[in-house]
Write a structure and sequence with these properties.
Layout: E1 11-13, E2 22-27, E3 30-34, E4 39-41, H1 42-48, E5 54-59, E6 66-70, E7 81-84, H2 86-92, H3 95-113, E8 125-126, E9 133-134, E10 141-142, E11 147-156, E12 159-165, E13 173-174, E14 176-179, H4 186-198, E15 201-213, E16 218-229, E17 239-246, H5 260-273
The structure holds zinc ion (ZN).
Length: 274
């Protein structure tokens, strides 16, 4: 990739990083930790890595600017480097650390998956200022993209509808979720997904909150909805099993409290106590 020359650019080379900067390292879909720490000093990486290694700015407004880099852990073996599944940070880290790690994963994935222009096939280059890639031939510009998803907790009096999903920790029950399709509002996605996956209809949809979910680049939009009608019937393709659970008899393995699914369930329990 051809890279910007200014050290203030959003996409630059590791050799251009300020010595007091910090970096989050990504190897494919995992993080590289150093002695248990997410952050690596830029000064160390400038001496270790190929000087042309791409760095993407995560946060440059603070005293110690922060960047994301992709590299192979084998290059760092003498520095107590270990791979870390980013999902494990959800339970063990400060929310700000998970946010930095998630942003680094998404930007590293974006850079690796956008090497050529989708219109003319030319090699993309770093934009000189913005966090964007640009085609030198047709000027097409590519920004990091996110995929919005809706996650829903359907309530029926003191019960909630939970499901076991194919291939997503299939032993555990969680909320229903799905990607938004072109032209849909989040509320329309919610109604469609719940109906497709469980044959249940809903009403009274309420937005609760959102979370960046970097596996690899989703934005989770969390809602509560009320049961309106229907009997549970699962599709067998995306959903293995769906059941109503009473608040007094929830599954033992619930989504982690930092996740939107965990927060939707916690809010439901809190509402019952009021
Ligand atoms: Zn082009």
């Amino acid at each position: 990739m051809s890279l910007a020359q200014s050290s203030s650019a959003a996409i630059l080379m590791v050799q251009q990083l300020p010595d007091h900067g910090r970096c989050v390292l990504v190897d494919e879909s995992q993080l590289i930790l150093r002695a248990g720490e997410v952050y690596w000093p830029a000064s160390l990486l400038k001496a270790l890595l190929d000087p042309m290694t791409t760095a993407v700015a995560l946060d440059v407004g603070k005293d110690a600017p922060l960047y994301a880099l992709s590299c192979e852990i084998a290059r760092l073996s003498q520095y107590e480097a270990v791979l870390c599944n980013p999902r494990s940070l959800l339970q063990s880290s400060l929310p700000s650390v998970f946010a930095h790690a998630g942003k680094a994963l998404q930007l590293a994935h974006w850079i690796k998956s956008h090497r050529h222009c989708g219109f003319c096939g030319s090699r993309l280059e770093a934009h000189t200022v913005e966090r964007a890639l640009q085609c030198p031939e047709c000027q097409h510009r590519v920004f990091p993209r996110i995929s919005p998803c809706v996650i829903a907790l359907v309530r029926r009096d003191t019960q909630i509808l939970l499901a076991r999903h194919v291939g997503r920790g299939s032993g555990n029950f969680s909320c229903l979720a799905g990607f938004m399709e072109v032209g849909e509002t989040p509320e329309e996605t919610l109604c469609r997904e719940v109906l497709e996956e469980t044959a249940i209809t809903v009403s009274n949809i309420r937005y609760v909150g959102s979370q960046s979910w970097p596996f690899p680049s989703q934005l989770m939009l969390g809602f509560h909805a009320d049961y309106a009608g229907g009997e549970i019937k699962v599709d067998g393709h995306e959903i293995l099993e769906a059941r109503w659970f009473d608040a007094s008899d929830l599954p033992t393995a619930l989504p982690p409290p930092f996740s939107v699914a965990g927060q939707l369930i916690a809010l439901f329990l809190q509402d019952l106590k009021v």
